[in-house]
Specification:
The protein is an alpha+beta fold and about 200 residues long. Helices cover about 20% and strands about 30% of the residues. The longest helix has 14 residues. It is globular.
Length: about 200
């Protein structure tokens, strides 16, 4: 659906500054509050290192699918290495205080809509002009609540999520090693149930 194309965020290519920032976050993450009593795992992906507080799913070779870190500033970092176990990621985010609905999608697909009632025009509204999109980025809470910040990494800011709201995250396989997935992130209004994702073809 063309109306949603502009809402999807690409994973940025890692630069020297990105790698420097990742190293700094690694050091900061050592002081982050841990939700499970396990040794932190280091997730290395495309040269980017992230501090992993929780690793709920591990493959046979010991590679974590994702890691959730609660940062000292109140934000939450999700490092997504493999698109699997959305239920586990939802559970870990709930343990961190964020009600979320997570879907992993194949290339060129999207979740059939409407799935929920959004808190702002970023979801379910008629097509936006470029000017409207730019203005929306500055004032729509859906854009503030979850953003792609690095290769295989998003940052969630709970202060923009009000009680009863659900953070809806749709990750789509991008078939690109440098930009492995695209993220669609929206906030569902409190009291609005989120329907299960039904994948449908998408040209975007």
């Amino acid at each position: 659906m063309k109306v949603l194309d502009g809402m999807w965020q690409d994973v940025p290519v890692a630069s020297f500054e990105d790698l420097t920032g990742a190293r700094r976050r690694l050091m900061d993450g050592m002081h982050a509050r841990r939700r499970v009593v396990t040794a932190p795992r280091l997730l290395v992906a495309a040269g980017v290192v992230a501090a992993a507080v929780a690793t709920p799913l591990v493959a046979g070779g010991g590679t974590p699918a994702y890691a959730v870190t609660e940062n000292p500033d109140g934000t939450i970092t999700v490092a997504l290495d493999e698109m699997r176990d959305p239920e586990g990621l939802q559970a870990d985010l709930l343990a961190a205080g964020v009600t979320a609905d997570v879907s992993f999608l194949a290339p060129h697909t999207r979740c059939a809509d409407p799935r929920f009632e959004g808190v702002d025009p970023s979801y379910g509204s008629p097509g936006h002009t470029e000017a409207q999109m730019r203005a929306g980025v500055e004032r729509w809470r859906s854009f503030e609540a979850a953003q792609v910040v690095d290769v295989r990494e998003i940052r969630i800011r709970p202060e923009f999520i009000r009680p009863g709201e659900t953070l809806v995250l749709e990750f789509r396989d991008n078939q690109n090693a440098q930009r492995p997935w695209r993220l669609g992130a929206w906030l569902a209004r409190a009291g609005s149930p989120v329907k299960p994702c039904t994948p449908v073809p998408d040209a975007g």
